[in-house]
Write a structure and sequence with these properties.
single chain; alpha+beta; 10 strands; 27% helix; Bi_nuclease_dom; BFN_sf
Length: 178
């Protein structure tokens, strides 16, 4: 398994579709997952450090897990079947290991709230991950820069379509703000 962090949450302004971009903690590998508006909002709000006057659904679930004496250990994006990602919440319930099926977007929203590690199975990254082309340190850019090069996880061809797609998205830095 590969540990990941949330790099950003973005929106395609033309289609209003949202994505969360996960980045491997120890390498330049990324996983792009399409998510719904409510989950994009829930993740972005937490990443921005803002709070809601009343608990959002993911805050509620985090509180329920805690009040029942459980602790989130991690989340795992475990599979990719027919272009649908699968995830599991990994909980410690008083010393008992419990795994609960989850949509990745909900699992990520819970992980950012509980400061829980996010893992992706290597097989998922092999099929759907992208990696930045190796360049010298001065010329390295984030996925949102125009001159970024992205290639598939096997390192075959440049995937200009991924670069163009990411560049077409706007970061949700101001998501939910008036």
């Amino acid at each position: 398994m590969v540990e990941m962090t949330v790099e950003s949450v973005r929106i395609n302004l033309a289609t209003q579709q949202h994505v969360v971009i996960l980045k491997a903690t120890k390498q330049d590998r990324y996983l792009i997952i399409w998510i719904a508006h409510p989950e994009a909002y829930a993740i972005a709000v937490e990443l921005q450090g803002t709070t809601s006057p009343r608990p959002l659904t993911h805050d509620l679930l985090k509180n329920v897990i805690s009040e029942l004496g459980s602790k989130m250990v991690s989340i795992v994006i475990s599979d990719l079947i027919d272009d649908i990602y699968y995830a599991r919440l990994v909980l410690d319930m008083g010393g008992r290991h419990v795994e609960i099926d989850s949509r990745p977007s909900d699992a990520i929203a819970l992980a950012v709230r509980s400061k829980t590690p996010i893992y992706v199975e290597e097989s998922v990254l092999e099929r759907a991950g992208v990696a930045l082309e190796q360049q010298n340190e001065e010329s390295r850019r984030s996925l949102s820069k125009n001159d970024s090069k992205i290639e598939d996880a096997e390192g075959a061809d440049n995937l200009d379509a991924y670069r163009d797609f990411i560049n077409s998205l706007d970061a949700l830095d101001e998501f939910g703000k008036d």
